[in-house]
Amino acid sequence: MRFTFLLITIFFYVSGISQDRRVITTAVPFLMIASDARAAGIGEQGVATSMDNFSQHWNPSKYVFSESSSAIAFSYTPYLSKLVNDIFLANISYYNKPNERSSWSASLKYFSLGDIDILQNPLDIPIIENPNEFTLDAAYSLKLNENFALAVSGRFLLSDVKLQTVDSETEAASSVAVDISGFYESDSKSYRNFDGIFRAGFNISNIGPKMKYSKLNNGTESFIPSNLRLGSGFEFIFDSNNSLAVTLEISKLLVPSPSVEVLNSNGDIVAYRQPDIGFLQGIFKSFGDAPDGFAEELKELTYSLGFEYSFNKSFFLRSGYFSEHELKGSRKFITIGTGFNTSRNLNIDLSYLISTSDVISPLENTVRLSLGFNFL
After folding, report:
1. Which residues does the chain have with pLDDT short of 50?
2. pTM (2 decimals)?
3. Domains and CATH numbers, the chain
4. Which residues does 215 contact at the CB level (< 8 Å), separation at least 6?
């Protein structure tokens, strides 16, 4: 695969300056991608859906509601598959539930930017580099009562996207972060024509210091994608074999809006960049710093609506819709997916994304695959 450093910078490298759309940029943006196929099939959401093997990414407090004592799962997501075949996001997750009140879990996410050929001159033998990013995290979950649980996660992040042969001033960046999450699942309640289960959840994720990619003392530091997710849903249980879950999720980056004006030589505003402040100050500032006030703050919210039909808890059909405002990234897409449980032990999930925005999604027409195995 042959990429120039400029192309890598456009797609992946962290920039402190946003264009007139005032899109919020962060380091390690791959953390905002749904790596598992189940969540990807219901509109890229998972904070308030029923427990699954990949709850570590969305809301690890769901693990204490598992019927299995432990499980392991793997997922694979091609990225920019229309252009290249060696950029991907992989995820492996594991959880263990030693008793009915607690669980612990861990996961590894790896994002490969593929092999990049570096040529100083057209006739030179290319130097191959492989930029990549990964996170390693662990979580502990505790059930406070029969219906509600909390979890705390710790995470190590490493972003090695430097091209040393092109820019000797860059280096790998690292950081640490914590998540705080909660999940509520009601008992099944009988209604006139069906039974039902109500679920709700939240996750404040990636609370941690900024990442620095430059060796220089005054080098630019980039925020990591601190994020708030809120969700709720209801599962309609029609009979012992058929059910339909409907879930709504709202998400907001807890990162400052690009609000500092960048002027050209004529004094005209050409762009906006994020303020140079600490990450904790940035989290609190993110709720009221948009240049156009509260109206723009609302534009920074993303919305996801998901549907999941289950037959005998063995066969699943899924669909969802994800929406982001045009001035904040313009991600809009429909998702579809399916899943199979073999004897309740082996789980296989597939999903597919169809973009409805003028901005082409890097995941357009991408099939995502997840595999999980439950230890009963």
Report:
1. 1-19
2. 0.88
3. 5-375 (2.40.160.60)
4. 169, 170, 171
